[in-house]
């Protein structure tokens, strides 16, 4: 049901305000440095509070839309659409974004580029908000690419380190490849459905699934989603993105960037889901990614890398649930997304606090931090409880929903249930590892004396961890305000919530949860052994997707270098030969292929050419100018020196400009005159460095080659023009310019109107090229000769300076 709520610009500002804040953030930080994080956090905080006002109409089953004309001539609008799914993502992005900005103020305190960082992180948030709120496929693609660009800036923020630069480039390359897939998929969807709006496409599932292009659309959409959400085997860029500062990791892994692919799959599920290809692909890839990421977490010892690998596992879990497509699995997806965002952002902030206050993130050297960092330990404990999925946490209800729809099914559902149990158990073991190893036990020495983090760094873990507990204590609220609206938006039908605090001891769900916890404890106790075995396996394998990427990039760079050396070897003469040979082929090829020479044959008498060779009736002075052009051309060919050749070419060009002027093309004439004037100016500038009194001696084969090309190109262009003149002149375009020049462009000079208005961007590009060439020429002219080496006063030395008297 659409409530008919039409918002003018307020909803648009939700996505645009963060970009404005990003622009002013460096200035805000410069002038109010001590509290800049607190002030800038008000932007996402205000957006969060504003979006809370949408909860009531959305929970009631409504939708909210707004937009403005973007490219009206192509019926393209910058439209935004809010339903239960987009509102859940938008609230998570803005809420966690406020805490991340606040956290960044303390974490990067004193960093020389902290103001720039604030700008990047706010733009990152704006891009993700625009993505989840966009109704237009083109707008979604635009924000999709903006998330890639801003994440590149954030991952490579510490650009002085090679690892940061490599991680940023790797993330940009992989996600941009996915962006191209998404663009192609969006275009195909528009061709099939006839609309760019996702709200319209959602109701055309039968049309899309019945189209012959369905397979291509599916590949494109999955390609975009899998690269963005780091699905196996395209997962390798995400751990390398940990080179970014910890606030970026907390935001990227919980609510932004990697969740974009999950959102896209959920949004397209009503349109593309329900087929065997969709279900098998998502469940298999999601399941493999879940287990691969979970095992990868146990292989790591760095806190951020452990959490990064567990994010890969969680993303695979979400994709698996979307692939199953049942009411219970989609409900579990919605609840687990929120649970994961809360505990993962909190745990990353804990990891950053530990690193910030101890100087290390290695769990093999960290021990006993609970006494020195008690508040940080509490935040880690609250988040870890939800990650394990213990009762009275939102993670518990997410896990229960996962198992609900897979009990008592066929072997396919039983296999999916086994994968989910193993994956959740591995993640529970990871949560125990992150909670127990750094904080419990006897205090171990660290590079820095451990102490509690500042309040700005503690607010995030405490509030997010407490949020997971509070949500677990209010299952009715979670079901009514989170599960039902989001799942209903994905499934296209009303979903009922059955979340409850009541625990049924006879329910198989409870026993599956108990099995998950028991296996999680087992995996934690055997973490060191499993780490050793996994690392041996990796060493025995000898290669990973990461090394394959490096090999491909190295080969690509080598190939590009070889192509560049082959085509751009610096021999201008060869370049010109290729260009004019291509021109000759382009002119004569179509004429030979399509009978362009038929007009040369007289219709009545093959030998009678007199009727075709009729001289034009020109005035004597017109013949004189043509004769001057011919004489100038001959003079160029027989010139004895470079100076004579240049002057002869100028005379021939001046005669050509006069021809343009006499035959109704004053604009071309003035352009030609300008060319001749510039030629004289350039000649005057280079006269002192160019020996103009010499003759260029060229071998006969060069004369034959260049002469043949010149004759062929000249004859081809002349024949083409004569062929055009034999046809009927189509004046539709010139009539259009004549009729619309004054009413639309308000210009009486039609040529100027064409250049400035109708071909505005083309002209802008030409001006840019000319400006670039002019700057390059200016740089060359401003170069100073290298000073001569000092000469010796001794006449016997080779560098003896000749004095005026000796001269």
UniProtKB/TrEMBL annotation:
<keyword id="KW-0812">Transmembrane</keyword>
<feature type="transmembrane region" description="Helical">
    <location>
        <begin position="306"/>
        <end position="324"/>
    </location>
</feature>
<feature type="transmembrane region" description="Helical">
    <location>
        <begin position="644"/>
        <end position="663"/>
    </location>
</feature>
<dbReference type="GO" id="GO:0006811">
    <property type="term" value="P:monoatomic ion transport"/>
</dbReference>
<feature type="transmembrane region" description="Helical">
    <location>
        <begin position="709"/>
        <end position="729"/>
    </location>
</feature>
<dbReference type="InterPro" id="IPR001750">
    <property type="entry name" value="ND/Mrp_TM"/>
</dbReference>
<dbReference type="InterPro" id="IPR042106">
    <property type="entry name" value="Nuo/plastoQ_OxRdtase_6_NuoJ"/>
</dbReference>
<feature type="transmembrane region" description="Helical">
    <location>
        <begin position="763"/>
        <end position="781"/>
    </location>
</feature>
<feature type="transmembrane region" description="Helical">
    <location>
        <begin position="115"/>
        <end position="133"/>
    </location>
</feature>
<feature type="transmembrane region" description="Helical">
    <location>
        <begin position="169"/>
        <end position="193"/>
    </location>
</feature>
<feature type="transmembrane region" description="Helical">
    <location>
        <begin position="574"/>
        <end position="601"/>
    </location>
</feature>
<protein>
    <submittedName>
        <fullName>Monovalent cation/H+ antiporter subunit A</fullName>
    </submittedName>
</protein>
<feature type="domain" description="MrpA C-terminal/MbhD">
    <location>
        <begin position="627"/>
        <end position="691"/>
    </location>
</feature>
<feature type="region of interest" description="Disordered">
    <location>
        <begin position="788"/>
        <end position="807"/>
    </location>
</feature>
<keyword id="KW-0472">Membrane</keyword>
<dbReference type="Pfam" id="PF13244">
    <property type="entry name" value="MbhD"/>
</dbReference>
<feature type="domain" description="MrpA C-terminal/MbhE">
    <location>
        <begin position="704"/>
        <end position="785"/>
    </location>
</feature>
<feature type="compositionally biased region" description="Basic and acidic residues">
    <location>
        <begin position="797"/>
        <end position="807"/>
    </location>
</feature>
<dbReference type="GO" id="GO:0005886">
    <property type="term" value="C:plasma membrane"/>
</dbReference>
<keyword id="KW-1133">Transmembrane helix</keyword>
<dbReference type="Pfam" id="PF20501">
    <property type="entry name" value="MbhE"/>
</dbReference>
<feature type="transmembrane region" description="Helical">
    <location>
        <begin position="80"/>
        <end position="103"/>
    </location>
</feature>
<feature type="transmembrane region" description="Helical">
    <location>
        <begin position="621"/>
        <end position="639"/>
    </location>
</feature>
<dbReference type="InterPro" id="IPR050616">
    <property type="entry name" value="CPA3_Na-H_Antiporter_A"/>
</dbReference>
<feature type="transmembrane region" description="Helical">
    <location>
        <begin position="39"/>
        <end position="60"/>
    </location>
</feature>
<feature type="transmembrane region" description="Helical">
    <location>
        <begin position="669"/>
        <end position="688"/>
    </location>
</feature>
<keyword id="KW-0813">Transport</keyword>
<keyword id="KW-0406">Ion transport</keyword>
<feature type="domain" description="NADH-Ubiquinone oxidoreductase (complex I) chain 5 N-terminal">
    <location>
        <begin position="71"/>
        <end position="118"/>
    </location>
</feature>
<dbReference type="GO" id="GO:0015297">
    <property type="term" value="F:antiporter activity"/>
</dbReference>
<keyword id="KW-0050">Antiport</keyword>
<feature type="transmembrane region" description="Helical">
    <location>
        <begin position="330"/>
        <end position="354"/>
    </location>
</feature>
<feature type="transmembrane region" description="Helical">
    <location>
        <begin position="509"/>
        <end position="527"/>
    </location>
</feature>
<dbReference type="InterPro" id="IPR025383">
    <property type="entry name" value="MrpA_C/MbhD"/>
</dbReference>
<feature type="transmembrane region" description="Helical">
    <location>
        <begin position="12"/>
        <end position="32"/>
    </location>
</feature>
<dbReference type="InterPro" id="IPR046806">
    <property type="entry name" value="MrpA_C/MbhE"/>
</dbReference>
<feature type="transmembrane region" description="Helical">
    <location>
        <begin position="455"/>
        <end position="474"/>
    </location>
</feature>
<feature type="transmembrane region" description="Helical">
    <location>
        <begin position="277"/>
        <end position="294"/>
    </location>
</feature>
<feature type="transmembrane region" description="Helical">
    <location>
        <begin position="375"/>
        <end position="394"/>
    </location>
</feature>
<keyword id="KW-1003">Cell membrane</keyword>
<feature type="transmembrane region" description="Helical">
    <location>
        <begin position="213"/>
        <end position="234"/>
    </location>
</feature>
<dbReference type="Pfam" id="PF00662">
    <property type="entry name" value="Proton_antipo_N"/>
</dbReference>
């Amino acid at each position: 049901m659409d409530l008919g709520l039409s918002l003018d610009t307020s909803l648009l500002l939700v996505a645009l305000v963060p970009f404005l804040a990003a622009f002013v953030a460096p200035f805000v930080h410069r002038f109010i440095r001590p509290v800049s994080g607190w002030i800038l956090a008000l932007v996402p905080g205000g957006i969060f509070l504003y979006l809370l006002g949408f909860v009531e109409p959305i929970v009631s089953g409504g939708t909210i839309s707004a937009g403005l004309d973007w490219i009206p001539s192509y019926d393209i609008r910058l439209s935004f659409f809010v339903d239960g799914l987009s509102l859940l993502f938008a609230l998570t992005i803005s809420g966690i974004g406020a805490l991340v900005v606040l956290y960044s103020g303390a974490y990067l305190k004193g960093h020389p580029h902290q103001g720039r960082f604030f700008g990047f992180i706010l733009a990152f948030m704006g891009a993700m908000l625009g993505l989840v709120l966009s109704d237009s496929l083109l707008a979604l693609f635009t924000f999709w690419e903006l998330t890639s660009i801003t994440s590149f800036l954030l991952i490579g923020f510490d650009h002085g380190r090679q690892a940061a630069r490599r991680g940023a480039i790797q993330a940009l390359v992989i996600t941009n490849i996915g962006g191209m897939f998404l663009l192609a998929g969006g275009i195909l969807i528009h061709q099939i459905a006839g609309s760019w709006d996702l709200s319209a496409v959602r109701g055309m599932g039968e049309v899309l699934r019945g189209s012959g292009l369905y397979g291509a659309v599916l590949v494109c959409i999955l390609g975009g989603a899998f690269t963005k959400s780091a699905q196996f085997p395209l997962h390798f860029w995400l751990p390398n993105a940990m080179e970014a500062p910890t606030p970026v990791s907390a935001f990227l892994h919980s609510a932004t960037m990697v969740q974009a692919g999950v959102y896209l799959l959920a949004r397209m599920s009503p349109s593309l889901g329900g087929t065997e290809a969709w279900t098998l692909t998502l469940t298999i890839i999601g399941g493999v990614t879940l287990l691969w990421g979970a095992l990868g977490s146990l292989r790591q010892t760095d806190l951020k890398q452990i959490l990064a690998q567990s994010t890969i596992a969680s993303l695979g879990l979400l994709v698996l649930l979307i692939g199953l497509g049942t009411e219970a699995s989609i409900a579990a997806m919605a609840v687990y997304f929120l649970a994961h965002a809360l505990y993962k952002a909190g745990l990353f902030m804990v990891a950053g606090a530990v690193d910030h206050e101890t100087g290390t993130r290695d769990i093999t050297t960290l021990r006993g931090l609970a006494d020195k960092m008690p508040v940080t330990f509490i935040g880690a404990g609250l988040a870890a409880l939800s990650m394990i999925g213990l009762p009275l946490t939102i993670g518990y209800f997410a896990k229960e929903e996962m198992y609900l729809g897979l009990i008592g099914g066929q072997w396919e559902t039983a296999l999916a249930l086994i994968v989910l149990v193993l994956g959740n158990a591995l993640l529970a073991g990871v949560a125990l590892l992150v909670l127990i190893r750094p904080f419990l036990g006897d205090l171990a020495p660290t590079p820095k004396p451990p102490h509690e983090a500042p309040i700005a760094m503690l607010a995030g873990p405490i509030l997010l961890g407490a949020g997971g507990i509070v949500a677990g204590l209010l299952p009715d609220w979670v079901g009514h305000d989170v599960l039902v609206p989001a799942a209903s938006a994905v499934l296209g039908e009303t979903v009922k919530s059955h979340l409850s605090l009541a625990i049924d001891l006879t329910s198989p769900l409870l026993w599956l949860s108990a099995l998950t916890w028991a296996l999680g404890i087992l995996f934690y106790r055997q973490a060191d052994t499993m780490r050793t075995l996994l690392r041996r396996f990796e060493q025995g394998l000898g290669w990973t997707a990461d090394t394959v990427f490096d090999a491909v990039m190295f080969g690509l760079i080598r190939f590009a270098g070889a192509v560049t050396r082959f085509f751009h070897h610096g021999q201008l003469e060869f370049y010109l030969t290729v260009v004019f040979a291509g021109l000759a082929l382009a002119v004569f090829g179509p004429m030979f292929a399509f009978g362009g020479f038929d007009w040369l044959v007289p219709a009545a008498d093959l030998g009678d050419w007199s009727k075709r060779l009729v001289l034009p009736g020109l005035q004597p002075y017109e013949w004189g100018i043509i004769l001057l052009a011919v004489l100038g051309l001959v003079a160029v060919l027989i010139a004895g020196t470079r100076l004579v050749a240049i002057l002869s070419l100028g005379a021939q060009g001046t005669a050509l400009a006069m021809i343009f002027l006499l035959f109704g093309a004053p604009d071309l004439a003035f352009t030609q005159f300008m060319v001749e004037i510039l030629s004289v100016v350039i000649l005057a500038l280079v006269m002192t460095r160019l020996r103009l009194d010499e003759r260029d001696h060229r071998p006969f084969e060069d004369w034959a080659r260049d002469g043949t090309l010149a004759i062929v190109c000249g004859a081809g262009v002349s024949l083409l023009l004569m062929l055009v003149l034999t046809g009927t002149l189509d004046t539709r375009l010139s009539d259009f310019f004549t009729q619309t020049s004054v009413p639309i462009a308000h210009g009486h000079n039609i040529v100027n109107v064409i250049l400035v208005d109708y071909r505005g961007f083309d002209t802008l590009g030409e001006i840019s090229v000319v400006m670039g060439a002019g700057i390059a020429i200016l740089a060359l002219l401003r170069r100073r000769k290298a000073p001569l080496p000092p000469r010796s006063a001794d006449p016997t030395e080779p560098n003896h300076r000749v004095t005026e008297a000796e001269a």
